[in-house]
Design goal:
Order of helices and strands of chain A: EEEHEEHEHHHEHEHEEHH
Distance between the termini of chain B: 47 Å
Largest sheet of chain A: 6 strands, mixed
Shape of chain A: globular
Structural class of chain B: mainly alpha
Largest interface: A-B, 27 and 19 residues
CATH class of chain B: Mainly Alpha
Order of helices and strands of chain B: HHHHHHHHHHH
Distance between the termini of chain A: 48 Å
Radius of gyration of chain B: 25 Å
Shape of chain B: flat
Number of strands of chain B: 0
CATH architecture of chain B: Orthogonal Bundle
Number of helices of chain B: 11
Strand order of the largest sheet of chain A: 6-7-8-3-9-10
Helix content of chain B: over 70%
Radius of gyration of chain A: 18 Å
Helix content of chain A: 25-40%
Oligomer: heterodimer
Number of domains of chain B: 1
CATH topology of chain B: MetI-like fold
Strand content of chain A: 15-25%
Number of helices of chain A: 9
CATH superfamily of chain B: MetI-like
Bound molecules: adenosine-5'-diphosphate, magnesium ion
Largest sheet of chain B: none
Structural class of chain A: alpha/beta
Chain lengths: ~250, ~270
């Protein structure tokens, strides 16, 4: 294996990332990074490329060009073991994506056992701890279809946490939820942040970004228009595009 | 005329036609001939045709159907995964296979497997003639079930694969633990339909003429039209038809039920 280019030891480092879908250039040269223990929130209008950026970070999408380092490992290098890298990045999707044919416990254990190679007992113990953490102790035997959206999303978070990831990526984790269920999920995310988890959060929850985020990134039309301290960006946006977006959502 | 009056009049006419048809049938059909040919009591009573029809015919039909289904299904999983493979030549091969065998009458495939291939390739089919015929049936059933399965696999939301891969599961593990179990659930109703079709298709094995003990239901019934207590009548065929319906109708009902349940689950 080639030694990865030195990357100042960041959790995520993205350099000059371009992504095309056919003729359509969706990411137009993104430079982006997340430091260890940092919570970076990404906002921007629908279709601006937020999900694509997040998905490139664990190669659910293949970058067209550019380099991405995760924990110092160049994941755009064809030699990199992607399964290994992915198992260290927790992802939470807008649509939960729990495995509907498995109960909650199985959802939390399968990758621990099959990927991490943990014994069943070990996996169950880790799973229980994480279920308790997201406030769902006792739901081990439930099937996803019998849980509310908010509960499903918290199970999804627990599933990702059970792999002991180095970082967590969230793609609009509360956008599919009924308003009264959003709070529970955000509370879990806040707790994670306070425990020092490295997080990249694509969200429309400006309150969360202001309160929890260490950095706010505003994307529009495939580029990062503006980034900085969340309170600062929200209160005093420097670019017209940011101002116009914020005026619509705030 | 008022709408309701008109409606009542059409209904009355429709019923009148129906009654007339029944009366005409009753008057014109020679019921004693029907009875002698279809319902010869020598076949229907205990110790008549039922023994051979059930202990040989139904038994072999069920065994052949199960064998063809199990192997056909195994083949179908392979074909379906090949058809969805990222490697183009695999896709071409699977597509070629599926189109080829779906485009042929099963009868031709069975005949070629039973009488052509063993001679051409100096091949001793496992299970003899029946085995060769069954392989023909399996080749065809596999092609049909592969298409059903492919549709089922593609009906599993993409987010499922993404969730599994993002937990670090390999492509193979994802297919095995996440995609296939969900796809199978989706295809249970159409697969049950394929099963019913297969039950009926085992009747095609009739053409290869095997030992008495290996004959399936249609062959046994056919034998009983020329020998036994109802020789010279079609009684045994009617009895076989009833036995087929006893097997297939509950399965067809089951499919309807399963489909209803799946629709509600959506
Ligand atoms: N798989 C895909 N194939 C083609 N186009 C895509 C695909 N995924 C996303 N896009 C396009 O890329 C653009 C950015 O999408 P996305 O990253 O999902 O934006 P956001 O998450 O900011 O709403 C959109 O125009 C979308 O239509
Ligand atoms: Mg998105």
């Amino acid at each position: 294996m080639t030694v990865p280019q030195q990357t100042s030891g960041r959790a995520i480092e993205v350099r000059d990332l371009h992504k095309y879908f056919g003729e359509n250039e969706v990411l137009k040269g993104i430079d982006f990074h997340v430091d260890h223990g940092q919570v970076v929130c990404v906002i921007g209008p629908s279709g601006s490329g937020k999900s694509t950026l997040l998905r490139c970070v664990n190669r659910l999408e293949d970058p067209t060009s550019g380099t991405i380092w995760v924990e110092g490992v160049d994941i755009t290098d064809p030699e990199t073991d992607l399964d290994q890298v992915r198992s260290r990045i927790g992802i939470v999707f807008q649509s939960f994506n729990l495995f509907p044919h498995m109960n909650v416990m199985r959802n939390l254990c399968i990758a621990q056992q099959r990927v991490r190679g943990r014994s069943k007992d070990e996996a169950v113990e880790v799973a229980r701890a994480n279920l308790a953490k997201v406030g769902l102790a006792g739901k081990e035997d439930a099937y996803p279809a019998h849980l509310s959206g908010g509960q499903q999303q918290r199970v999804a978070i627990a599933r990702a946490l059970s792999m002991d990831p180095d970082m967590m990526l969230f793609d609009e984790p509360t956008s599919a939820l009924d308003p009264e269920l959003v709070g529970d999920v955000l509370a879990v995310m806040k707790k994670l942040a306070s425990e020092g988890m490295t997080m990249m959060v694509v969200t429309h929850e400006m309150g969360f970004a202001r309160e929890v985020g260490d950095k706010l990134v505003f994307m529009d039309d495939g580029v990062i228009v503006e980034e900085g301290d969340p309170a600062e960006v929200l209160a005093n946006p420097q670019h017209e595009r940011t101002r116009s977006f914020l005026s619509k959502v705030l | 005329m008022k709408r309701t009056t008109k409606r009542k009049l059409t209904d009355a006419i429709l019923y009148a036609v129906l009654v007339l048809a029944v009366v005409l049938a009753g008057a014109l059909i020679d019921w004693s001939a029907v009875k002698a040919n279809f319902f010869d009591p020598a076949g229907w009573k205990r110790g008549g045709n039922w023994g051979d029809l059930i202990t040989i015919g139904v038994k072999n039909t069920i065994v052949y159907t199960l064998v063809a289904f199990v192997f056909g299904f195994g083949l179908a999983i392979f074909l379906a995964l090949m058809k969805l493979s990222p490697v183009a030549p695999y896709r071409w091969l699977a597509t070629g296979y599926i189109e080829f065998f779906r485009g042929l009458p099963a009868l031709i495939v069975i005949l070629v497997m039973a009488f052509g291939v063993p001679i051409a390739f100096n091949w001793q089919p496992p299970g003899g003639l029946v085995g060769a015929g069954l392989i023909g049936l399996i080749l065809v059933a596999g092609a049909y079930m592969a298409e059903t399965l492919r549709a089922g696999i593609q009906a599993v939301p993409k987010g499922q694969t993404e969730a599994a891969r993002s937990l670090g599961m390999s492509a193979g593990r994802t297919t095995l633990s996440v995609v296939l179990p969900q796809a199978l659930r989706i295809v249970i109703p159409p697969l049950t339909n394929e099963f019913v079709l297969l039950i009926k298709d085992t009747a095609l094995l009739f053409v290869i003429g095997v030992q008495v003990g290996q004959r399936e239901l249609t062959s046994v019934a056919r034998d009983l039209t020329t020998s036994g207590p109802t020789a010279g009548t079609s009684t045994s065929l009617i009895q076989a038809a009833i036995l087929y319906l006893i097997i297939t109708l509950p399965l067809t009902r089951l499919v309807a039920l399963l489909e209803k349940r799946q629709q509600r689950a959506r």
